[in-house]
């Protein structure tokens, strides 16, 4: 059934919810669906993960069975049901200054070469809940002084497939313990401490957060034109997402990222990821960092 807004109606939530492992036929259906729509490769052996993630969403959405939930997600003409399912299966773990060698390379090698530019744009292509994108913004602030004086010199484009993760990222509110290990001056410069009911939480200062643009984007779909206002990016971060893709999807994603790099621009991948076995025109610089030739 379809509701008045075009969104498929939920099954009867009064039914007794299904328990136990996701049935094999449903796992196969989910596996094909998320591969076709998001490029996520759920190999056999991931049944327990799918069971845990879908069980929670099934109950939250009032669906009595795994199959009913998947059918609702696929029938929903608004696309929100499918996004709900992909959100449930997407892994959005990240942290501030994760894999700090990349930030050191950015600070020492990339940014000094961009110092004479009137506009600096960086793309964080798998932003999850925002910690990486804000870490990039803070590093740019340290180098160029963005936001705090009303400047618009720098822009961080932060994209992700998960609408739920992006909503968290846009809020820019994190527990104080998430900032352990960041430079000692960052909290005072870039964060607002919560008080009262918000005690123990920190929010990214609005004038700094304003340089980060969050946008939903599926990396396996054709990339829209104009991602970079200047035509291409001098630096793209796409870390710890390609591990969920098979070689065919990795090939497609890397080709798209390469087209968005300016000559001489850098691509940072996760340290657990490698471009070995993928056709590309990038030069190896150091572990998990590649450069498009001039």
SS-derived structural category: alpha/beta
CATH architecture of the largest domain: 3-Layer(aba) Sandwich
What top-tier CATH class of the largest domain fits best? Alpha Beta
Describe the sheet with the most strands. Answer: 7 strands, mixed
| Helix content class | 25-40%
As a whole number of angstroms, the C-alpha radius of gyration is 21 Å
H-E order = HHHHHEHEHEHEEHEEHEEE
Q: Can you tell me the CATH topology of the largest domain? A: Rossmann fold
Which superfamily, in CATH terms, is the homologous superfamily of the largest domain?
A: Vaccinia Virus protein VP39
* Structural domain count: 2
**Number of E strands:** 10
Shape: globular
Can you give the mean pLDDT?
88
Provide an overview of this structure.
With 294 residues, the protein is of the alpha/beta class. It folds into 2 domains: 24-89, Orthogonal Bundle (Chemotaxis Receptor Methyltransferase Cher, domain 1); 100-291, Rossmann fold (3-Layer(aba) Sandwich). Helices cover 37% and strands 16% of the residues. The protein has helices at residues 24-38, 47-60, 66-75, 80-89, 100-113, 131-144, 163-171, 186-190, 206-209, 247-259, and strands spanning 120-124, 154-160, 173-175, 191-193, 201-204, 212-216, 233-237, 261-268, 283-286, 289-291. Strands 6-2-1-7-8-10-9 form a 7-stranded mixed sheet, sandwiched between helices. Strands 3-5-4 form a 3-stranded antiparallel sheet.
């Amino acid at each position: 059934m379809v509701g008045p807004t075009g969104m498929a109606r939920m099954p009867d939530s009064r039914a007794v919810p299904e328990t136990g492992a996701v049935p094999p036929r449903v796992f196969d259906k989910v596996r094909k669906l998320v591969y076709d729509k998001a490029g996520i490769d759920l190999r056999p052996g991931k049944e327990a993960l799918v069971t845990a993630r879908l069980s929670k969403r099934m109950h939250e959405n009032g669906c009595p069975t795994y199959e009913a939930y998947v059918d609702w997600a696929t029938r929903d003409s608004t696309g929100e049901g499918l996004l709900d399912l992909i959100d449930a299966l997407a892994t959005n773990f990240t942290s501030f200054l994760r894999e700090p060698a990349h930030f050191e390379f950015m600070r020492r090698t990339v940014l000094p070469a961009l110092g004479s530019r009137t506009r600096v744009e960086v793309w964080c292509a798998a932003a999850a809940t925002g910690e990486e994108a804000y870490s990039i913004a803070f590093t740019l602030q340290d180098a160029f002084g963005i936001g705090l004086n009303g400047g618009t010199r720098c822009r961080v484009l932060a994209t992700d497939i998960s609408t739920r993760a992006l909503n968290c990222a846009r809020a820019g509110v994190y527990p104080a313990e998430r900032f352990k290990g960041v430079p000692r001056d960052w909290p005072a410069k870039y964060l607002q401490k919560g008080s009262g009911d918000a005690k123990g939480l920190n929010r990214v200062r609005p004038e700094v957060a304003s340089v980060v643009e969050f946008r939903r984007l599926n990396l396996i779909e054709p990339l829209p034109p104009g991602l970079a206002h200047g035509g291409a990016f001098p630096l793209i971060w796409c870390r710890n997402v390609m591990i969920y893709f098979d070689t065919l999807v990795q090939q497609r994603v890397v080709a798209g990222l390469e087209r968005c790099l300016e000559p001489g621009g850098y691509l940072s991948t996760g340290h657990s990821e490698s471009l070995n076995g993928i056709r590309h025109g990038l030069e190896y610089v150091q572990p998990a960092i590649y450069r498009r030739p001039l």
